Every structure is written in C-alpha cells, then in structure tokens.
Inverse folding.
C-alpha cells in the first residue's frame, strides 16, 4: 500500500512538472520570468500575455483532458471486450466524427454552408459530435439485439470502416482548399480548444470519469467473463450499455475538439497494468488517467521541437511514442 501511494505521489509530481514545462515551452521565445508574469498578472507585453494565457495554458489543460479521456476509453473497451488491442476508436466513433467533419467541408459553396459557418470555430465541433453520435446510435441499436460483446466489437469496427470509406469518397470529390482543411484536422491539435470551448469538453470528460469510478466493481467483475459477472448478479446488458455510451461520449468529445489522436487509448491501460502489477480497476483506473495525462503532455512537448519552424502533428507524435511502449510491454510480459 505504501509503495502504491508513493508511486501515485510520484506520478502526480511528474504530471505537475510536465504541465509546467508545457506552459513554458513553445515556438515563441518567451523567458521564464515573462511567462510567470503573464500567468500571475501581466508581462507588460500584450502579445506575450495572449500567447501564455489564451494559447499555452488552455493547450496544456486540453492535453490533460484528452490524455485522461482517451486512456479511460481504452481501458473501458479492453475491459468490456477482453481484447488487448481494443481502443477508443474500436467502435467507429472516431471515424464517425471524421465523417461529420468531412461532410462539413463538402458543404462549402452550398446554400447550407453560410448557416453552418456562422457558428465560427464551433462548426467543426458540432459536425464531429453529430457524426460520432450517429455511429453511437447504430452501435446501441446493435447492442440491444445482440448479446455477444465480440460480435458488437466486430460490427463496430465495420461501422468504422464504412465511415472511413465514405470519408475517402468525399475527399476524392473535394476541392484543394476543403481537402487541406480536413487533412489538417486529421493531424490533431491540442491548441484548437479555446476557453469558451473548454467547459463543454471538460464537463463531458469529467462526467465520463465519474461514471467509470462508480462502475469499478462492475468492471472488475467483467474481467472474469460475462458469465461469471452475470452469475454474481451483474446486469450485463445495462452495464455494457453504460460502458459503450461512456467510452463513446468521451472519445467523441475529444475527437470533436482536438481531432483524431491515435495510440494513447490502446497503450496506456497496458502500461498502467505493467507499472502497478495489477488489473484491479480501483488502482488501474486512476493510474490510467494519470499516465494518459502525462503521456499527452510529454507528446505535446515533443511536438514543439523546432523542425523547419513547424509544430509536429500531435497524432504522429503519440503514435511514435505509443508503438515502442507496446513493444516493450509485449517483450517484458511475453504477451499482452
């Protein structure tokens, strides 16, 4: 117990350090003194104050929110389907969000677009949430008729493939400007979440985290199989419904606001289990949230390494970090 407390304390400290480093790091050359002054009061330079307060600070907070949500969703999916490769996008919700954004770009030049464009920066978010919600409704309709979770997993993947295929078709008809906008969205961006968008994203993710903590006992029961869980009095259908909705909502929310971010949800639950040597959700749930937040902050720091005066796509950085971590876990444990 003491070792576990010490590890959580260390992770908390690491999270705080990574958060501070993320605020102090960026393409713009701003000193530590100027950064602190902008956070506390004013640096005396309106541009520096704007960068620190309205870009770097919300971006660092978004990294924590996104890392927590995607890792949590991955853990829920791996627990429900007992599949080590299950992740946040396994049900096709992320692909649905992408389809929504792709449809939005295709509407440019039509009579509908002026109405949508009047939403400003929220237009892509609304489109992504709508697409994710439509796929979620399909999944829930299927889960109401099918008892086998693995079948639901396979159908969810098929829905994702269909959505991705539709996106590809839309891209083939897109004009270069619209295509560029969509491709840029697929890179993922933590800096696109402004203060006015933050409350909605934070509310959805915090609700998902709270529900997951309430369901700890049910999640532990599912680790032993649905038949055992049912024999112990667990309502499998209701539990499966809550897990799917919870995972889909937090995944759809993050994807809508930040674009698709790969690998975090798949790798972090494995890393948490290996790190703490247990599968008990009482430990793994908070560990997964902490580790996911840390990884996302670290990836955001790496993405800001100056290469040709450009910021690296966060989606690519998380994949570069995630793949070696999975390989390390497999080599250490000889299995997933």
């Amino acid at each position: 117990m003491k070792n576990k407390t010490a590890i959580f304390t260390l992770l908390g400290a690491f999270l705080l350090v990574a958060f501070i480093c993320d605020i102090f790091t960026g393409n713009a050359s701003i000193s530590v003194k100027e950064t602190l002054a902008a956070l506390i009061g004013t640096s005396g330079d309106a541009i520096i104050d704007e960068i620190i307060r309205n870009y770097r600070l919300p971006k660092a907070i978004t990294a924590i929110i996104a890392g927590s949500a995607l890792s949590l969703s991955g853990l829920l999916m791996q627990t429900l389907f007992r599949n080590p490769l299950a992740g946040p996008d396994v049900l096709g919700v992320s692909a649905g969000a992408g389809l929504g954004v792709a449809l939005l770009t295709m509407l440019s030049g039509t009579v509908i677009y002026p109405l949508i464009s009047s939403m400003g920066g929220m237009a892509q978010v609304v489109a992504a949430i709508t697409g994710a919600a439509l796929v979620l409704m399909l999944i829930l309709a299927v889960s109401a008729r099918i008892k086998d979770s693995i079948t639901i997993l396979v159908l969810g993947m098929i829905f994702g493939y269909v959505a991705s295929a539709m996106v590809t078709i839309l891209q083939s008809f897109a004009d270069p400007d619209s295509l560029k906008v969509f491709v840029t969205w697929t890179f993922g961006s933590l800096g696109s979440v402004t203060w006015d968008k933050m409350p909605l994203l934070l509310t959805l993710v915090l609700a998902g985290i709270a529900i997951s903590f309430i369901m700890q006992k049910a999640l532990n029961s599912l680790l032993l199989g649905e038949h055992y869980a049912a024999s112990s009095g667990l309502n499998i259908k209701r539990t499966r419904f809550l897990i799917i909705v919870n995972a889909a909502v937090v995944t759809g929310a993050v994807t809508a606001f930040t674009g698709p971010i790969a690998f975090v949800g798949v790798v972090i639950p494995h890393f948490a289990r290996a790190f703490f040597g247990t599968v008990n959700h009482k430990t793994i749930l908070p560990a997964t949230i902490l580790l996911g937040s840390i990884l996302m902050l670290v990836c955001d720091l790496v993405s800001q390494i100056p290469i040709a005066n450009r910021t690296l796509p966060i989606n690519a950085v998380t994949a570069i970090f995630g793949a070696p971590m999975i390989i390390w876990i497999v080599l250490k444990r000889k299995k997933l």
